[in-house]
Hints:
Layout: E1 5-7, E2 16-19, E3 26-29, E4 43-47, E5 54-58, E6 75-78, E7 85-87, E8 90-91, E9 96-100, E10 106-110, H1 117-127, E11 133-140, E12 146-152, E13 165-171, H2 179-191, H3 197-205, E14 206-211, H4 216-221, H5 246-258, E15 262-269, E16 276-278, H6 288-304, H7 327-335, E17 338-345, H8 361-370, H9 372-378
Parallel strand pairs: 3-5, 13-14, 13-15, 15-17
Antiparallel strand pairs: 1-4, 2-3, 4-10, 5-9, 6-7, 6-10, 8-9, 11-12, 12-14, 16-17
Bound molecules: zinc ion.
Amino acid sequence: MTPLHISTQFDAGAIEVLSLADPQDIQLNIRRDNASDFAQWFHFSLQGAAGVALSVRFLNAGQSAYPKGWAGYRAVASYDRQRWFRIDTQFDGQVLSFDFTPETQCIYFAYFEPYSYERHLDLIASVARCGHVTQERLGGTLDGRDMTLLRITDATAATSLAQKKKVWLIARQHPGEAMAEWFIEGFLQRLLDPADPVARVLLDKCVFHVVPNMNPDGAVRGNLRTNAAGANLNREWAAPSLEKSPEVFLVRQKMQQVGVDLCLDAHGDEALPYNFVAGCEGNPGYTPRLEALENSFKAAWLATCPDFQTAQGYGQTPLGQANPTLATNWVGQNFDCLALTIEMPFKDNANLPDVRVGWNGERSKKLGASVLLPLLAVVDQLR
Length: 383
Ligand SMILES: [Zn+2]
């Protein structure tokens, strides 16, 4: 029998191997982000196990960043790195484990369906060829990757540039939340579909500023939550620096140059099996106007997308108690505009579950496409 082998030297690869000697007792640890203590993301290949009954244990799962994320969680696996499926997974409060017999010699396991840096580059290259799209390099990350902004509008449409609403979408500040970039891919595909009437109206009325990946270094390094310097980017918005959080510094600077009338920040939540939004109601500057806009947006999304719901979420932050270092709170306060954090599940949407794949890339894309409808519902009221 070929000896078992685990590899992680690829995009977002991450796991620590403690013991591979016995297929019935494979012992692993979830790896920390490269410069912080957050640990939750894993992604590795296992070779030499065709037809072998494996018993895999993640011994330190109970000390991960979000132990509540493991209750009801099912790991994802793929033979071809294209189609990812869920496998039954147990968590006893300390150890995460699954039993599985691979069909072929090489199988990949991950915390969630990955969104690779190559796919990120492919996405940018493909949409940048559309006439409505301008690609802009805002600057570089600490590892030397590009911070790319896509500026999208129909310059030939009726609305003058000065009158167009400035709509921002940013994603993946937390790099392990790969669903956030799948969401952006689905959003861009629909926005750039010349046959879609909703997209055509929005491209007339808005200039979209889209940052598909706010944290490319963390994504490639296989981090859950931080960049190469260990910064949690969604706690950097009050005072970002080029040394520690250039990703936020560059995007924030561009926002200050062009303005913001609406901002959506896409994330994933480890624990809650639902899609939901969190607003900036805790900001000192939150007004009845912003509350009405937020309610209109949520009502329109609820009416048009069964994967969205409002019953489950983070709850309301009392007025004046917002954390000003979060993107949504900083943007909402500084631009007096509608700003929402979009949360998707790592597990599944419990209201509309799919036992084969759970929540995945394709479903995140559909949700990203669906957000055009609530945008259309509120666009004329944004200012
Ligand atoms: Zn997040």
